[in-house]
């Protein structure tokens, strides 16, 4: 069905879970969440597909659950992409305004964005997004919408997000095998920003950190636009592994202990509180201090936020994020996460909850649904733009072949 019948489907393919959200676009422009499905994900590592068959099964289970709840059949999706292969760069394009009247047209805007994205890319990478930051007309900057203005010289500042062709291809292949057409692939932190950030935060400058199972995704906003994206190869699964080693517990039980008793800030926990931990290999359960559990969790989250701080300082945005930081993703649910982040980054921090939708709001009112809800919001915003990439496996191979042909042409 897809967006043509006012149904928009977001598919968050994560390292820990796969989440499908079905939304109906109303005539007044509101998005009504009508179906949600989740399934454990075991076919990905750090956001990248490592087992196609297992991933396909997980996608099918999540979609079946969402379809059953919504009472509809789904044939196309907007799917999120993440992983250490994602790279973001800022670029600039310049053109002369065409036409005798020197009035900037939509064609001029498309030309200047094309000029900005004309950067040399390795043959194994492709452009996922070109996100305009600002336009400059005859030296006058800070322009968000130059359409209709008069000028001679038009410049654009854009943020280009690129990813590995093979990683994108494998996600699309998994969706195709599950019987789905991919309408577009969307950067996960871009999707999360649509559902969790306010316009004021984006204008003032804000850091978004989406802590998933295998990776932590960073997006830095200033003046209403993305200026930097990065992916850290550390996430909630590392916290679980630390607990399993520190408490000598099975990994599946360590995950349950983290969800039930975990806290990111040990100072918030009473030292006298005790919890029960199951033993390995049939050994008897043990009683341990909950404070000790939190002392295992805290260093790993401190590492994540310290790496975020280093990344923001490396690109020079430490003084440009007046609105502080918004932390979302499954691992942000742990009590004490905002307090710990504030302690390390010295900025105000809040937990990002999806907003801007109606329907099953109480069900999706959790950071674990931030990306999936953001994907349907992205689909709603771009439903009239006929720029859906409708990528197929053949199209991706065609892109690689074309780039190789260009590369050989430069040398022979």
What this model shows, in words?
The protein has helices at 52-70, 106-116, 165-177, 188-196, 199-204, 236-247, 251-261, 290-314, 337-345, 361-364, 370-381, 393-411, and strands spanning 7-13, 17-25, 31-40, 44-45, 48-49, 76-81, 87-96, 125-137, 140-143, 153-164, 181-187, 206-211, 216-222, 225-232, 274-277, 286-289, 325-328, 349-351, 358-359. The chain is an alpha/beta fold and 412 residues long. The strands form five sheets. A six-stranded mixed sheet has the order 11-6-1-2-3-19, with helices on both faces. Strands 14-13-12-17-18 form a five-stranded mixed sheet, with helices on both faces. The longest helix has 25 residues, at 290-314.
Fold topology:
Blueprint: E1 7-13, E2 17-25, E3 31-40, E4 44-45, E5 48-49, H1 52-70, E6 76-81, E7 87-96, H2 106-116, E8 125-137, E9 140-143, E10 153-164, H3 165-177, E11 181-187, H4 188-196, H5 199-204, E12 206-211, E13 216-222, E14 225-232, H6 236-247, H7 251-261, E15 274-277, E16 286-289, H8 290-314, E17 325-328, H9 337-345, E18 349-351, E19 358-359, H10 361-364, H11 370-381, H12 393-411
Parallel strand pairs: 1-6, 3-19, 6-11, 12-17, 17-18
Antiparallel strand pairs: 1-2, 2-3, 4-5, 7-10, 8-9, 8-10, 12-13, 13-14, 15-16
């Amino acid at each position: 069905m897809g967006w043509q019948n006012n149904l928009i489907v977001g598919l968050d393919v994560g390292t820990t879970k796969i989440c499908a959200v079905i939304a109906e676009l109303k005539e007044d422009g509101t998005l009504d969440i009508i179906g949600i499905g989740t399934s454990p994900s075991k076919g990905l590592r750090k956001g990248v597909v490592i087992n196609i068959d297992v991933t396909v099964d997980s996608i099918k289970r999540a979609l079946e659950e969402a379809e059953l709840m919504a009472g509809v059949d789904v044939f196309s999706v907007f799917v999120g992409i993440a992983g250490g292969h994602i790279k973001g760069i800022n670029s600039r394009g310049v053109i002369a305004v065409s036409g005798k009247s020197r009035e900037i047209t939509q064609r001029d805007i498309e030309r200047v964005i094309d000029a900005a994205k004309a950067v040399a890319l390795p043959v194994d990478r492709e452009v996922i997004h070109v996100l305009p930051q600002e336009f400059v007309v005859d030296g006058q900057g800070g322009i968000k919408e130059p359409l209709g203005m008069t000028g001679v010289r038009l410049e654009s500042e854009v943020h280009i997000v690129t990813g590995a062709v093979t990683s994108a291809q494998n996600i699309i292949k998994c969706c195709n095998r599950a019987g789905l057409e991919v309408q577009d692939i969307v950067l996960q932190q871009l999707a999360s920003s649509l559902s969790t950030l306010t316009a004021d935060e984006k204008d003032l400058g804000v850091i978004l950190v989406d802590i998933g199972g295998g990776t932590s995704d960073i997006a830095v906003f200033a003046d209403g636009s993305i200026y930097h994206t990065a992916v850290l190869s550390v996430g909630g699964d590392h916290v679980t592994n630390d607990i399993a080693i520190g408490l000598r517990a099975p990994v599946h039980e360590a995950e349950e202990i983290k969800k039930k008793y975990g806290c990111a800030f040990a100072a918030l926990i009473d030292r006298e509180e005790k919890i029960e931990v199951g033993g390995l290999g049939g050994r008897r359960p043990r009683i341990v201090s909950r404070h000790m559990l939190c002392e295992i969790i805290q260093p790993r989250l401190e590492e994540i936020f310290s790496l975020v701080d280093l990344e923001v300082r490396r690109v020079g945005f430490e003084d440009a994020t007046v609105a502080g930081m918004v932390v979302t993703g499954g691992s942000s649910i742990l009590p004490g996460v905002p307090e710990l982040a504030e302690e390390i980054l010295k900025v105000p921090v809040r937990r990002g909850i999806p907003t801007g939708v109606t329907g099953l709001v109480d069900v999706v009112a959790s950071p674990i649904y931030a990306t999936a809800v953001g994907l349907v919001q992205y689909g709603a915003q771009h439903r009239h733009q006929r720029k859906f990439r409708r990528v197929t496996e053949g199209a991706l191979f065609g892109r690689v072949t074309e780039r190789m042909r260009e590369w050989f042409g430069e040398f022979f």
